[in-house]
Amino acid sequence: MTRVLAINGSARMEKGHTQKILSVFIEGMKEANATVETIFAKRFKIRPCLGDFQCWYDKVGKCIQNDDMEKLYPKLREADILVLAIPIYFPFPGEVQNLLNRLMPLVEPVLEFHDGRTRAKFHDDVKISKIVLVSTGGWWEKENMEILVHFVEHMARDSNVEFSGAVLRPHAFLMDEYKEKADEILTAVKNAGTQLIKEGKMSKDTLEVISQPLQSEKDLRDWYNKAYQKAKESSS
């Protein structure tokens, strides 16, 4: 049975749009007989990485800091698939940045050079073979999340595991206003979760349905600008 660890990095946790998408994605994975555990980065007290590489060259595979990451390392080592659910802010929430930086003890510094880049790999006791991104944003275009997609993709490659794709939902807050399209999107999100477990990948067509626009770029831009102008006037 496939074991999945989903890390929700949203500052809004259960109340956020990221969790709404993630929970449906998880439904699809569970229907394909995966076991899934969800954790919220904000609930853990995780200090920033010290950057002194002691987990590589002194106490190999062991972080010298004693905080809530010690609760997460065993879960990370046992997961077959790691799902990172992260909203795009500017660029993304600080709690999950600290968590991701602290993954370094899981990585063994046995270096290789391929695809034009230096790569390492996870330690042998880390079972993660795939990393997936689930992300939501407020702006119109999914390209606004490219910085996060590239980050997670390279993190996977630098650990010598598969980046299995990204479930991207731009202007996610509008889904409540477009129920018919929202139902279509959420069905596709669920299908993507099932596909990931059953077929090992998510189809391009399914991911495109999830990212479809709900209104024109101009209409959304005008809404943002009017909302800002109204707030500016009321605060002056």
Residue-averaged pLDDT, rounded? 94
**Given this structure, which CATH class is correct?**
Alpha Beta
Q: How do the helices and strands follow one another from N- to C-terminus? A: EHEHHEHEEEHEHHH
Uncertain segments: none
Note the beta-strand portion. Answer: 15-25%
Structural overview:
By secondary structure, the protein is an alpha/beta fold. The chain has a single domain (3-235), classed as Flavodoxin domain (Rossmann fold, 3-Layer(aba) Sandwich), CATH 3.40.50. Helices cover 41% and strands 19% of the residues. The protein is built from eight helices and seven strands. It has helices spanning 17-31, 54-57, 69-78, 94-101, 146-158, 179-199, 204-210, 217-235; strands at 3-8, 35-40, 81-85, 107-114, 117-122, 130-136, 162-169. The strands form two sheets. The chain has a five-stranded parallel beta sheet with strand order 2-1-3-6-7, sandwiched between helices. Helix 1 (17-31) crosses helix 6 (179-199) and helix 6 (179-199) runs antiparallel to helix 7 (204-210). The chain is globular. The mean pLDDT is 94.
Give the topology.
Layout: E1 3-8, H1 17-31, E2 35-40, H2 54-57, H3 69-78, E3 81-85, H4 94-101, E4 107-114, E5 117-122, E6 130-136, H5 146-158, E7 162-169, H6 179-199, H7 204-210, H8 217-235
Parallel strand pairs: 1-2, 1-3, 3-6, 6-7
Antiparallel strand pairs: 4-5
Helix pairs in contact: 1-6, 6-7
